[in-house]
Amino acid sequence: MSEQFPATPPAQPYPTPAWPEGAPGRRRRRRFPLGAVLWGLFFVVLALGSLVPLPYVVESPGPTYNTIGSVENKKVIQVSGHESFAAQGNLDLTTVYVSGGPGGRVTGFELIQAFLDPSKAVYDEDQIFPKGTTKEESQKENALAMTSSQENATAAALGALKIPFQQKLTVAGFTQGSPAEGKLKNGDVLLSIGGRPSTSMTAVRDAMAASNGNEVAVQVQRGQEKPTVRLTPVKGDDGRYLMGIGLQFSFDFPFKVQYQLDQVGGPSAGLMFTLGLIDSLTPGDLTGGKHIAGTGTITPDGQVGPIGGIAQKMHGARSSGAGLFLAPSANCDEVVGHIPDGLTVVKVSTVADARTAVETYAKGGDLAALPHCSAG
After folding, report:
1. What DSSP string describes 280-329?
2. Dihedral of CA 205/209/213/218: which sign?
3. Which of 252, 273, 307 lies at the terminal end of a domain, its last residue?
4. Domain-located, residue 40
5. Count of domains in the chain?
6. Alpha carbon distance 324, 364 (integer Å)
7. What is the dihedral angle through the alpha carbons of 193, 223, 169, 228, rounded to the nearest 10 degrees?
8. Does 248 lie in the same domain as 259?
9. Whole-angstrom distance, CA of residue 156 vs CA of residue 302
């Protein structure tokens, strides 16, 4: 059948003539298979997805570092002025790669990959980084957090080993409606609360609990003076009594400890630095030569706190060969359902909990008897 000229030309600005079948000069229509069209669209979308940045953050397993080993021929933990001992096995700190955020965004292609990979997690950028945060600010914050975690780790390790050191708590800011504002000043060094020495967070918490919300006397060092002020603690959301102040730690250790790990930032290495230093300062092998990994922030008095990206850290630990993973108790809701095959996870709240878990594993003990995360 041939096409014919219509009796009345179609109403369009630039009509395209239709030529009779087989007539000279006829323009043949090219027909593309549907599959080819779909594949073409797929590659166009793929190309756009690889170029268009999106406001998301992708977390994936990062490298692990053995705190009782070496990185680039340098011992991760170096002790000067005190006897130290070589240790076998692994006490790995775990890390997370972060794609996106300040200074860079992920693409649609990267998001698709992340959604299909159970070892990765996707977040809105604002969930990880406050609005307006720059790349430089984020890097500086992570570097400061790492320095603080190293100092806290040294204090926690020495405390666990009963090695004396000097510690001070300095006032560094006030909460809204603080009962201490106008009475204490930034830079005041706490000396006592209610007549009790207050050189540690544990001592401060105990003094606040003992006050039962009643007025207490707080003595501080302020320059050359040691004034005493009286204030009434307020009850926080968790039911504990508080002075409404921020506190900054400072330490005077009896020997020097250096941590050689410039490529890692943030506070989450604290627990594993603590265990690594304990192992370095004591004869023998805390691990029994076995491969252990973990994560968690640390306070100077040995309390283990929550961290981010724990699912990715567990995958990274298993990939590096760890059989035991130490997880902060506060992260249990993110642990359940995300443990890689072959990895045993023990929850810990203190350095003492972590040491017990490591020593049990080192001796081939019953890990099932230790605390584990459970649903709910």
Report:
1. HHSSS-TTTT-EEEE--EE-TT-BEE--S-HHHHHHHHHHTT-SEEEEEG
2. negative
3. 252
4. no
5. 2
6. 12
7. 10
8. no
9. 5
DSSP string, 200-260: SHHHHHHHHHHHTTS-EEEEEEBTTB--EEEE--EE-TTS-EE--EEEEEEEE-SSEEEE-
**51 domain-assigned:** no
Residues 268 and 148 in one domain: yes
What string of DSSP letters covers 121-150? EEEEHHHHS-TT--HHHHHHHHHHHHHHHH
* Same domain, yes or no: 344 and 327: yes
Q: What is the DSSP letter of 331?
A: G
**36 occurs within a structural domain:** no
Element (H, E) at 110: helix 108-116
> Which residues lie below 8 Å from residue 253, measured CB to CB, with a gap of 6+?
154, 155, 158, 165, 166
Judgement on whether residues 203 and 267 belong to the same structural domain of the protein: no
Tokens of 201: 């967070």
* Three-state DSSP state, 360: helix
Sorting pLDDT into bands at 50, 70 and 90, what band is 264?
confident
Residues 6+ apart with CB under 8 A from 340: 119, 314, 315, 318
Q: Which residue type, as a one-letter code, is found at position 317?
A: A
Query: Cβ-count burial of 254 within 10 angstroms (0-12 exposed, 13-18 middle, 19+ buried)?
Result: exposed
Q: How far apart are CA 193 and CA 220, in angstroms?
A: 9
* Backbone φ and ψ of 232, nearest 5°: -110, 115
**What are the pLDDT digits (tens) for 172-187?**
999 988 999 999 999 9
Do 337 and 264 sit in the same domain of this protein? yes
**Are the beta carbons of 257 and 77 closer than 8 angstroms?**
yes
Does residue 31 lie within any of the structural domains? no
Q: Are residues 184 and 325 in the same domain?
A: no
**Which pair of structure tokens corresponds to residue 35?**
């599959």
Question: How much helix, strand and coil, in percent to the nearest 5, is found in the chain?
Answer: 30, 30, 45
CA 149 to chain centre: 12
pLDDT in tens, 114-137: 888 888 888 888 888 878 778 788
Q: What is the extent of the structural domain holding 192?
A: 166-252
